Fold this protein.
Amino acid sequence: MLRLSKLTDYAVVVLTRLDDAGGAASAPGLSAATGIAEPTVSKVLKSLAQADLVIGMRGPQGGYRLTRPLTALPLSDVIVAVDGPIALTACVDGAVGACDAEAVCPVRGRWDPVNDAIRAALSAITLADLKRPARQPKLPSPVAALAAE
């Protein structure tokens, strides 16, 4: 089964919440806003900062900021920042010595097109695509009727 790690999922949540903040946000603030434990938020932010997806700023107006808008942030960049290179099998991209059966494997090298397609699909989806629009408050039906008049 293909499944993203929890840390990658948390990274997407943290990045979208950071976008909502509109400026700098602290790890404790992001933790409170997302419900993700502060040590986990800090770990995610460290990985994101190392990949230049966020920048940490010190001082009274400090915190973390996005380095680019969500529309310019592909999901693939977040996955690579948190989990490392996207690879379905050990022998993807010509890797050698990562599998005991590589010398006799009948499908060696055949996974590359599949891996490329998955990378392309994940690169085509931005975090802005994943972010839900702000919820509109649902008005009670008599109020909605009055508002419609």
Notes: DSSP finds seven helices and two strands in the chain.
